[in-house]
Batch of 2 targets.
Target 1
Amino acid sequence: MLNVEHVSGGYGEQNVIKNVSFSVRRGEFFGVIGPNGSGKTTLLKMMSGVHPVQSGSIALDGRPLHSYTSKERAKVIAVLPQAVEQTYAYTVEEIVALGRYAYQKGLFKTLSEADKILIHEAMKQANVLPFAAKSIESLSGGEKQRVYLAQALAQEPKLLLLDEPTNHLDLAHQKSLLDALRKWTEEKDLTIVAVFHDLNLASLYCDRLLVLHNGMIHSLDAPGSVLREDNLEHVYATKTKRLIHPQRSRPLMTILPHQTRQEREMISFAEIPVEQTEEWIALSFPFPLKTLSSAVLGSGFSWKKHFINRHVDKDYDHQHPEADMQQFLNAHDLAIDDTVAMMTAAMLENYSLRLLDKENFELLVIVTAGVGNAVDASKAAAHRWDEHRIGTINTWIFINGELSEEGFIQAMMTGTEAKAKALFDERIKDPVTNTLATGTSTDSILVSATQRGEAIQYAGTITELGKAIGETVYECTIEAVKKGRQS
Amino acid sequence: MAYAIAVFAAIAAVIIGVSFGSVPIPMSEVAKIFLQSFINAEFGAPIDGATANIVMKIRFPRVALAFFVGASLAICGAAFQGLLKNPLADPYTLGVSSGASFGAVLVIFFGIAFFGPFTLPIFAIIGGFLTILAVILFSRLVKRTLSMETIILTGIILSSFLGSLLSLMVALSGEELREIIHWLLGSVSMRGWGYTLMILPFFIVGSLVLLLNSSELNALSFGEEQAHHLGVNVQRRKVLILIFASVVTGAAVAVSGTIGFVGLVIPHMVRIAFGADHRHLLPLSMLYGGSFLILADLAARTIVAPVELPIGVITAMIGAPVFAAILFRQRKERSV
């Protein structure tokens, strides 16, 4: 569709764009990203023919761009600029009708019936039909942009060039514009080349991304390959972190704001009071901890300040434990978003707590244990889903240090293995299979780290942190089980 | 419908313009004389020969000239405004009128006669065209985006400069002094049919070219880049519009001197009433511009009769406040 070969050019003496080559396939959603002044807009203007090319060539459908007449070109390429200068109060329909300029014939260039139908259709697609007769001046920024989009559509282009199309739009308008554009790439085989400032929008919508750096191509590939922390640090001279999108297989990038003094302040776990009543065991930190958990509320990765282990009656059988827990937290004035909450029927006074102060980190482990529900994971097939007995082991592991994501998962594994070993040594049996149990059917675990202090990469069993977790969780679990037995 | 009203207004303006004067002639009489002369209509009562003479030889030429000058200035104003996407542009504020005057004064001052009777308009046209080129080039140098204020400021600077040159020539001239001064102030009086015929070819050809570029003006009023995207051959159309707007302005200035603000007021009003589309803005501006200048001329010669005011006084009295109003509105909109 579009072939850019060894193109250079710019303003005056200096070339803004230096020897750039790439091609865009029909129906592709092609994104151009890069820092300010990298030449994105200049490149776009060269593709639209507004800006001359110093050397190299741009070909459209195999034909050099400069061999097109103005009108021929406008029938193939439409442009949605960042902003259109508008001086007079044209109506929306008049503006969209200008999109047919290149198709009009004769001295006075009247609109044919076919033109009128196309104009109507373009207004419908860009969702501006309701204000067709209104003056452009009376519209909001997002509406104005949709009017110019309708104008571009009325050109029936094969190639649509967009310069930061989402610049002035709110979240909903960004999504609806980009969704519509991508739909047209599928339905009409429209080819789109768009300059993006927002890396995440580019990642979510583009088939391929071209990264411009100092007027040259730094990389050109699918978003997943282009949007890497090292690439972006090189191009933007800024550290970024790559995240996964929860629903789409596209990377998200985020910057790291400089930490405030408050965010760097250290604490010691010894200062954190553990509150134990009949109703709960509660821990509150002065700032949120990065937490990975399987709790009733606040599961997955998140940042949490409050940690609740709630006691419930033996006969607790709620249809919606989550909603019930939310109500419970509300009743205690705890912000749900800041809180991890588990529940147990075990007697809370039988909890076990260990605080370890190592050279590189602190470790705090709290365990509550009831084992009536014990299960041998290797023989769990013998169990029925709806059986109802009491007994849960809740394991809390707090680390005062900066733990990597793999460290979180290793800490979880290490803690789980230590728990299983403790049950093994206490000869806890699965009442159904009558074999040694590995846990209970409703166990919960959380690993939480302050992310301040020393960086800790690993928490496998024979790492320094792993050793501490293994031993401490083992001891705590045994103690909690024993206390439960005695009472 | 809009055109019917505009045509009716123009005819009414012509009849009113002819009817008033030192010797009032009833409008019905004027209409009769017109009908008799144009389509040989027969009326029961014979028309007084002297009255017919006043109408056809003195008043009507003046009114017709006023109409063509007004139409010229208004259509040029509309075209300049579209091309430069600047509602304050008109032949007067851009300095085109001054440039054209300068060209015309050169002809009178040096007694140039290269092109026979068309020497005056041709020099005026060249003067006007060179001025608009100078204004645009200089504004570009100041600010690449051709902002509204820069263009107008440049136009005013150039106007004053040309004005001072004109004053110099007036001071140096002896006998032609009165003729030049009178002409400079802008007037459509005592020109006879000769002047009307002199500008007519320029007016017809120039206006036609401008009218044929209405769609392009629509596109250009969104900026040159946007016009390019829409398929307009920007360079060619721009030059075409500039040349022919200068032709129409130059011819008008050659016969009437510098009459300000007509090209500003009329398109502005038409835009408010009928919308911004240049396909209607241009022809409607012509009709209303012509009618407006007939009435302005009428006011100029009757307000303090028997003394005749320069017609530019009247147009400026109306035009300057409109200029201020547009400037104020633009400022306000942009600050939002």
Target 2
Amino acid sequence: MIRTDRVFGLVVILVALTYIVSAYNLPPGNLFDKLGPKAFPTIIGVGMIISAAVLVLRPDEEPEWPARPTLMALGFATVVLVAYAYALKPMGFLVPTAIAAGVLSYQITPHRRNAVLVGIGLSIGLFVIFKYALGLSLFAFPRSLTG
Amino acid sequence: MDIFANLALGFSVALSPWTLTLAVIGCFLGTIIGALPGLGPSNGVAILIPITFTLGLDATAALVLLTSVYYGAMYGGRISSILLNIPGDEPAMMTTLDGYPMAKQGRAGEALVISGVASFVGALLATIALALVAPYLARIAYKFGPAEYFALYVLAFATLGGMASRNQAKAGLAALIGLAIATIGLDNNAGFDRFTGGNLHLSDGVDFLVAIVGLFAVAEVFFFIETHGRDSAVGVKLERVIVPWAEMWSTRWTMLRSSAVGFIAGVLPGAGASLGSFLTYMMEKGIAGEKGGFGTGVAKGVAAPEAGNNAAAGGALVPMLTLGVPGSGTTAVLLAVLMTLNITPGPTLFADRPEVVWGLIASLLIANFVLLLMNVPLVRVFVKVLMVPPAVLLPGVTMISFVGIYSLSGSYFDLVLMILFGVMGYAFRKMDIPTVPVILGILLGYQMENNLRHAMTLSGGEWTYLFSSPIAVGLWIFAAAGFIAPIFLRGMLRRPQVAEADKVTD
Amino acid sequence: MKFTTLKALGTSAAISLLAASSVWAAECIAPANPGGGWDFTCRQIGKILYDIGQVDAPVQVTNMAGAGGGLAYSTVVAERNTDPELIVAASSATTTRLAQKAYGDATADQVRFVGAIGADPGVIVVAADSPFQNLSDMVEAIKADPASVAFAGGSAAGGFDHMKPLQVLKAAGFDDITSVKYIGVDGGADAITQTVGGFTQAMTGDMSEIVGFIKSGEVRALAVLTEERVPGFEDIPTAKEQGFDVVAVNWRGLYVPGGISDEDFQKWADRLQAVADSAEWKQAMTDNGLAPFTKVGGDFQSWIDGVVAQTEELSREIGVIQ
């Protein structure tokens, strides 16, 4: 029977093998450094393989994964957050924050008008706090607009 | 006795209406900064330095302000741990383990009061110890070389077995993943980057703040989207906040033990508050045993890490003041502010500038009392956070985390990394893989490898060097005991369950 | 009652903060977290620029930690190349890393180095009870057995602190420098702790890092790596007078974006000169163990070019770069 723990264990084993291989491709390091840059990562990698093997051989009960629509919603939230991360610098703070906060708010409690209000309110409120009370260097709008 | 004369000197410098006002402001700001995930000491200093300049504060007033912010941040870290399951700063991560279950049961107020008092006890005892023994204790740092530090880190990981709820392999795997992440970046001993794929952003390694905010805050948002806020502490009907005297009294030994262990962890420059709160929690969990109910929301489970991390915060001042070695991110910040005030910590500070040292100790005592008076009544205000609808609260927390992380380096890269950690945190919690060991691995991995390699460099490759001092041997013995004890206990308690699991697999 | 008082205090704090951070004149990027040398450079220079009236509003300090300064460097080159109101804190570490290609493809000629206005002299230090009485004792011991002396320093292997003893050994005609033990720890104070504790035999670092320990008598400085003895520390001999022709100072200064006009470059050079001449800066230098070292404008740029070339050569020799 396929179980999450087994799949995860196999993925970890693959990652750990890649990790060990790339450790072996590192240059040797300094003459005085007896252990060198490869040993510690190799130990860690081997440890990962052993504990992942335990998961493959003895998996726990299957976790309760959410249904497909919820997974889609989570995927969408991730995409929104990544887009927000990329937009923050070129587009200034206010607009991306309002959109990202609004979307998250709507996803938690689907209420359109409230989500819009939360987005706008959080974006302006947090900007004022961060910029003026905490003195962080933030820009409200794209730098190119304000100069 | 000398100490009273010294303290009198300190208070004469530090006690005035003006400095008290500053202490209140500092404690308040510190608590808020500490409570906000992603905003940590570096933001604290970013705020402090301009204020000291603009207000033209003299050294004493600035000291009062900065110690208030420092201790305030240590107190504040617990608030979001308990209310939202999101640690405000890294030492507060252990407080999530019992604090959040308590909040889910409607006992957020009690958790905050008990942890607040524990913070007070830890910080107070540490400050007293600092005043009494700092100059002598500084010598401990001279006894800790690469072999001793390596053994200390091994000890921390050896106790991890008690961390997992069911599957020990998962706790171990989580720690190893953290350790592997810690090897990313510049190799200090070879002078080149490892595992960065040529990406300049990774060359400094993965910042543990990015990991902690991702694994906890971002993952929490995913859970709220999945459940729409059910099965959380938000909106839970709160019991009236009363001071739980009896419950608090029952944690008295926990608080005292944790303060002692936390203080020692703080004094060692390579350990710090996170290791302090981790070790105290694991120690108390071990003492309480299976019946203690650690992890389900017990008072001792919030008292131990909070007493431990606040005592460690006080302890960390010992190497900072007497050697100029900052043991943690927060003390590094404090050191920076002292330097801008033209106070250079080091072995001669106690003799050269007694008014500074004793003024600082007096300010710490003042800050500590102000924080207690402020924190306990304010619990009523803090718990109101849980009455904010999740649709407002969680987006707010997310945006705060983004800005906090963004302010680290001003790049999208850390933010994307943080989201990845968020996805990982969500999946790990679903799979019952604890995330605290991942953080511990990231926090300690770099130093662990470094010290191992330094030991091998110094000994010319001789492994016995790792066991060559009494301190190192002692730590190895503790580590072995910490590793074996849970296995032995589990063997007795859990044998039937393991057998059952086997059957299911086959 | 209590809460209203608190609230009022909180509000007043917020307002005072608001006033503190109104309009910024120029921006100084410290390519590290608060607390280090670069942060100090930005904050001190920024403060003095404002105090002596060279700029009419406080200088905003931005911390941009990452890749040992590489992140700030590549950001300035790629995004702020023509910003005339931007200065960036720099030191020997900046040029060492540029010379070693540690900032990716970035090269030292992509920005303009505007000047240095102070320097932290390099030092080589031993514990008070060490058998080495002078630099020659140590060099002879290493020549006899390279594994007998381990150095601790605050930079990574191949970094500036590691280079200092190697330069001395090269000057003494010792070529097997790759076998000399070095451990890179978290900063100079940590390196001293390891040396006083007897785990390493010597510490290599900056003067500012050892001041307190010299005064308390726990360590002895074998040599300072400057042209002449440092004021205030006249009893520490230079490496030069002991017959090892090595000068290594950790200068503190600024660079500006490469695309700004010559007038803007000159403007910053003049401002920096004014800071260097101010009484406030002299006080700050004394308090922090910095020695006078002023090179501003065109002079500084050509000096930097020489340093980069020299570092590149030594790095190649110890195998940090191919």
